């Protein structure tokens, strides 16, 4: 049965777009690839470092910090709160030596990505959560920000409270607010329709790093943690092979160790786009009907500077910047808004 489903899906999921089919003969570097259309601005910020022979690690951190500074109900303290009205943030970072650090469910700290980097550099640990993460941040010079909601987040939360419907599926519970899996990448007021920024980069020296920062699923259960701060789920870097990051319903990404899987597919010789597609198929094949109702997108970059992406649903886009190009590219997908 499983095999039949796989064959059915493989024949149904003919990509509408090709992210990149021809592979580079010489490495393209430096290069940075980020999730979503606002990844374009993130890349530009990171390029100030990457384009000047800077370290990929510094570049991805700076791109993530730029995103965290935006008070736009998307990522960072301006983002949507959990169902108790509290904003809690997740972030991870990984370098070319497989050093990594992460924080989860951290509150009132503006730059979780930099706290994640401190976890990586100053502690023997990989992941620190909740109150402990906040205390660690305060001890390391981060300021305690006020416990308030941004105007767009307040509006979205008040709207959500009217029904207080809790379904642990990304963007489903606030579908009525135009923020469902079938909504455009931007809402009418220009708000980016996602909660996560994932970034992978390769420096001029050929070394790779990645970072993810997120407010997690909007109106999540208090204390819920998604894929973004889990190394191997929301972010993975292997300096021999490549790097990958994800966006979408974190629970589904965690179940398959999504980005580790993508990188392992690249190690087996698959192109970044095909590696992402195979990881998405691994998720979807388990229950293709259920998968029609959620989004997961992966992006990947290999050591030659080839990149690619693939998603469960139409609508996932990636932003790329190198010396040769600066583009926003729609990812290939399985379902066209829930329809095969
Ligand atoms: C999570 N993966 O917390 C994140 C959410 C996300 O765009 O990617 N939103 O599950």
Task: Examine the secondary-structure arrangement and name the CATH architecture.
Answer: 4-Layer Sandwich
Class from helix and strand fractions: alpha+beta
What is the spatial order of strands in the main beta sheet?
Answer: 4-3-2-6-5-1-11-12
What percent of residues are in strands? 15-25%
Q: What is the CATH H-level superfamily?
A: (Glycosyl)asparaginase
Query: How many beta-strand elements?
Result: 13
Number of domain modules: 1
* H/E topology pattern: HEHHEEHEHHEEEEHHHHEEEEE
Assign the CATH topology: Glutamine Phosphoribosylpyrophosphate, subunit 1, domain 1
- The value of Rg in angstroms is 18 Å
Query: Treating each run of at least 4 consecutive H or I residues as one helix, how many helices?
Result: 10
Task: Give a short account of the largest sheet.
Answer: 8 strands, mixed
CATH class: Alpha Beta
Features:
single chain; 340 residues; alpha+beta; Glutamine Phosphoribosylpyrophosphate, subunit 1, domain 1; 5-stranded mixed sheet; 10 helices; 13 strands; 31% helix; disordered N terminus; binds N-hydroxy-L-asparagine
Characterise this structure.
The protein is built from ten helices and 13 strands. The chain has a single domain, classed as 4-Layer Sandwich (Glutamine Phosphoribosylpyrophosphate, subunit 1, domain 1), CATH 3.60.20. A hairpin with a 3-residue loop joins β11 (317-322) and β12. It is an alpha+beta fold.
Structure described in brief:
This protein is an alpha+beta fold.
């Amino acid at each position: 049965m499983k095999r039949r489903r796989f064959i059915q899906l493989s024949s149904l999921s003919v990509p509408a777009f090709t992210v990149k089919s021809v592979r580079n003969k010489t490495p393209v570097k430096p290069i940075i690839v980020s999730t979503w259309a606002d990844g374009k601005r993130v890349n530009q910020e990171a390029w100030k470092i990457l384009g000047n022979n800077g370290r990929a690690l510094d570049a991805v951190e700076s791109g993530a910090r730029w995103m965290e500074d935006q008070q736009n109900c998307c990522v960072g303290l301006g983002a949507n709160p959990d169902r108790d009205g509290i904003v809690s943030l997740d972030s991870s970072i990984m370098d070319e030596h497989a050093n990594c650090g992460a924080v989860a469910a951290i509150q009132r700290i503006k730059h979780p990505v930099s706290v994640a980097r401190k976890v990586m550099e100053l502690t023997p640990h990989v992941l620190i959560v909740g109150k402990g993460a906040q205390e660690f941040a305060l001890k390391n010079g981060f300021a305690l920000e006020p416990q308030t909601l941004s105007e767009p987040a307040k509006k979205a939360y008040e709207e959500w409270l009217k029904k207080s419907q809790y379904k642990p599926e990304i963007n489903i519970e606030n579908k009525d607010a135009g923020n469902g899996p079938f909504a455009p990448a931007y809402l009418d007021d220009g708000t980016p329709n996602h909660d996560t920024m994932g970034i992978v980069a390769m420096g001029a020296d050929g070394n790779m790093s990645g970072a993810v920062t997120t407010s997690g699923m909007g109106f999540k259960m208090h204390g819920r943690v998604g894929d973004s701060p889990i190394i191997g789920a929301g972010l993975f870097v292997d300096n021999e092979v490549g790097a990958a990051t994800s966006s979408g319903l974190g629970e589904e990404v965690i179940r398959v160790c999504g980005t580790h899987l993508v990188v392992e597919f690249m190690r087996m010789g698959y192109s970044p786009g095909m590696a992402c597609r195979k990881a998405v198929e691994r998720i979807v094949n388990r229950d293709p009907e259920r998968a029609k109702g959620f989004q997961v997108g992966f992006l990947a970059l290999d050591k030659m500077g080839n990149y690619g992406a693939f998603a469960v649903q139409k609508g996932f886009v990636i932003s790329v910047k190198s010396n040769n190009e600066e583009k926003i590219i729609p990812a290939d997908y399985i379902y066209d808004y829930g329809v095969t």
